[in-house]
Write a structure and sequence with these properties.
By secondary structure, this protein is an alpha/beta fold. The protein has helices at 3-24, 40-43, 45-55, 77-83, 114-122, 127-136, 175-183, 196-201, 214-217, 245-249, 253-287, 302-318, 322-325; strands at residues 27-32, 61-66, 88-92, 140-149, 151-155, 169-172, 187-190, 207-211, 226-229, 237-244, 291-294. The longest helix is centred in the last third of the chain and has 35 residues, at 253-287.
């Protein structure tokens, strides 16, 4: 064997070794989502995350998306992420109250608009910062938040203020909403999401609290005339993205930093997409003949909601950690 051939063989072996080393150095990030592929939390967020990771190079991250609950459903995330069965997952923050009790704030009648809640999330020592500490205690890292918006009240007759609930049977989907409806003089009824349409159609309920997006997916415009979005006096649906802390901490430093930054960027992009979607849906609902009211602090009905929910808010805040409660204490 000539020296040249020996050199070529050695060079080839070195190249193969480097190639194998490079392959081993890749960081695979498995993202677990659930629900429909057209949900804004999947449809918009995943491409936004991929773009943010690409613009955030150099990093060795390869994103693997497992949609439709392939790795875990939403209800599995509060256990699956801390246990490491899920490395990175899309979550409904409201569903973590058994793991992180302070997430109950999402169901509290704070009365904040989406813009106001975003400000509370992002400000120094705000909700994002405080909740990250709570999640960290449970071996999870909260990487991003995106408010899906307050639930809507759909009805055949106008409901504008809490007194309008008196004597009405109202579909609810959380205990916080049930407490509020009872406090307003109504009767809360628990009905599965898929059964809301016939319940409204046949008068089983007089009104229904559902996600604003659900007005479209459930074709509520066929069985209801009015839509009210009462700020977050009936809570809000907070989405987010969380990772297993042990797994995240073991990633190469550059990849960990790139992933954290990319999820943060994509989550803020997702917030804008949610607001745009709500604007489009509002126009669509009105185009189908519905009267849509989105409660704002400068509207005359707002003080009535504040007064009616004040005892409920006080009781909820008393059950939360002081640092979380302080962010939502009503101003005198």
């Amino acid at each position: 064997m000539t020296f040249l051939n020996t050199f070529r063989i050695a060079a080839t072996a070195t190249a193969l070794s480097l190639s194998a080393g490079a392959a081993l150095a890749q960081t695979t990030v498995p993202l677990a989502t659930w629900g429909g592929a057209n949900h804004v939390g999947v449809r918009q967020f995943v491409p936004a995350l991929e773009a943010a990771l690409k613009s955030g190079k150099p990093n060795t991250i390869t994103l693997q998306h497992f949609p439709g609950g392939q790795l875990a459903q939403d209800k599995d995330m509060p256990v699956g992420i801390p246990m490491g069965q899920v490395k990175l997952g899309w979550i409904t923050v409201n569903g973590w109250s058994g793991t992180v009790p302070d997430t109950r704030i999402m169901d509290a009648p704070t009365g904040l608009t989406m813009a106001q809640l975003d400000a509370v999330i992002d400000k120094p020592n705000g909700l994002m910062s405080v909740l990250q500490k709570k999640y960290s205690e449970k071996n999870a890292v909260l990487l991003g938040l995106a408010d899906l918006g307050p639930p809507a009240v759909v009805s055949k007759v106008a409901i504008k203020v809490p007194a309008d609930f008196a004597g009405k049977k109202v579909r609810v989907f959380s205990e916080g909403q049930a407490e509020a409806v009872r406090a307003f003089g109504g009767s809360p009824v628990t009905i599965p999401f898929a059964d809301v349409y016939p319940a409204m159609q046949y008068g089983t309920v007089d009104a229904a609290i559902i996600g604003f997006q659900g007005v479209d997916s459930q074709k509520m415009y066929e069985v209801a005339k009015f839509v009210l979005v009462p700020s977050s006096f009936l809570g809000t649906t907070m989405m987010g993205w969380a990772a297993n802390k042990s797994w995240l901490d073991k990633l190469p430093a550059a990849d960990k930093a790139a992933l954290i930054a990319a999820v943060d960027e994509a989550s803020h992009s997702n917030r804008k997409a949610i607001v745009a979607e709500i604007d489009d849906l509002t126009k669509a609902y009105r185009g189908r003949g519905m009267e849509v009211t989105i409660l704002q602090p400068d509207m005359p009905e707002y003080p009535a909601w504040q007064k009616a929910t004040a005892p409920l808010l006080k009781a909820t805040l008393a059950k939360l950690s002081p640092d979380v409660a302080a962010l939502f204490q009503p101003k005198d």
